[in-house]
Amino acid sequence: MVMEQRAAAIDRARVAALGEERLDWRFKAVPAQAWGLTVREYLATGPTLDQLATPLLTLDAGALAHNLRTMADWCAHAEVELAPHGKTTMAPALWQAQLEAGAFGITVANLPQLRVARAFRVSRVMLANTLLDPAGLAWLADELAADPGFSVSSWVDSVAAVRQMDQALRAAGATHPLEVLVELGGPGGRTGARDQATALAVARAVDQAPTLRLIGVAGYEGALAHDSTPAGLATVEAYLAAMVELHDALRAEGHFTGVERVLVSAGGSAYFDQVTQALAPLAATHRDTTVVLRSGAYLAHDDGFYRAISPLVRGAGGRPLRSALHGWARVVSQPEPNLSLLDGGKRDFPYDLGLPEPQLARPGRVLTGTVTALNDQHAFLRDSDAEIGEVVRLGLSHPCTAFDKWTLIPVLDDASAEHPRVVDLVRTFF
């Protein structure tokens, strides 16, 4: 059962103020004709995609709205909370939309991202990492002391980390304990205690540290599997069973005595169905336990990795997500037969989980061909009927390495329309 939660908040006035930022050469998505205008003034001119230069990254407004509602509805039906991983977009305006759709809070991955969240006064933040930086811990202690409405949690996976955090917080004169979750990892994964004994030792160390307070268990199954094969799904299932075992062992040892809300958190955008199936029964059994998913890529989705692996195309119920993410690049050279060079490359589009795929040539012609390689500023499109000067729409894979390449991202009313209109500009902070 999901406990009644105080809604997380963000400073809407600070987000709205992004509309008053003046446009200039710093934003590669913006045409020179817009320089000197504010974001709000530029949007009032009714710009269209045709007026923007290439290379370009855009978002589709309809797909964003669909994905936002789809995931919110799915979590509500499954009776789990969602703290979207903000590191995917680092876009406060998109965080605001997620929070207003009912998100439990925002997840971040490191100290700089946490500072962005605090700059926009996000009231509940989960740091999915261990914060050991003494200066960062001192800053965070001041934030907690200054804002009674601010809730933040960090992860810990070793006794040494617990001791260093406690020492730094003591030195900073912390007056409010920092809430932490024991992180469970797995062989070959990233961070996280590798076995139950280590995780229990971490919890006992937290209990002895007056500057820290244990509130739950966390982990990331996506570091242990990267496909939806039976072997991959079995690896995820075994890991989640270990998380349940750790939660039960911590509860049996009394580590959650006096904790009003125990958090159990896992779940990216690839296996949130398995996470829910494994962890939701904990909340049904223990009224003080809340299961929190941290899916982040679902909002933009993609035409690659997540399109293939999403639980919503593997029978998890709910409507399939739609890709809101597109690249646009122009054919600038055809120096050999069956080879077209586009003016967008690694500096513009993601490539770590699959190369871009050609979809359309403006203004809507279905395009043949395959992108076989990317250089820093070019894409190699082979066996295509593209022509010199044509603008190609590209399907992209992995939003987490797309947003970071753009400080301002145009939002189109419909990326498949003959003449898409620019209806918003999303500011990112990486």
From TrEMBL:
It comes from the Bacteria. InterPro entries: D-amino_acid_metab_enzyme (IPR051466), D-ser_dehydrat-like_dom (IPR026956), D-ser_dehydrat-like_sf (IPR042208), PLP-binding_barrel (IPR029066). Residues 324-413 form the D-serine dehydratase-like domain. PANTHER family: D-SERINE DEAMINASE (PTHR28004:SF8), ZGC:162816-RELATED (PTHR28004). This is D-serine deaminase-like pyridoxal phosphate-dependent protein. It comes from Kitasatospora kifunensis.
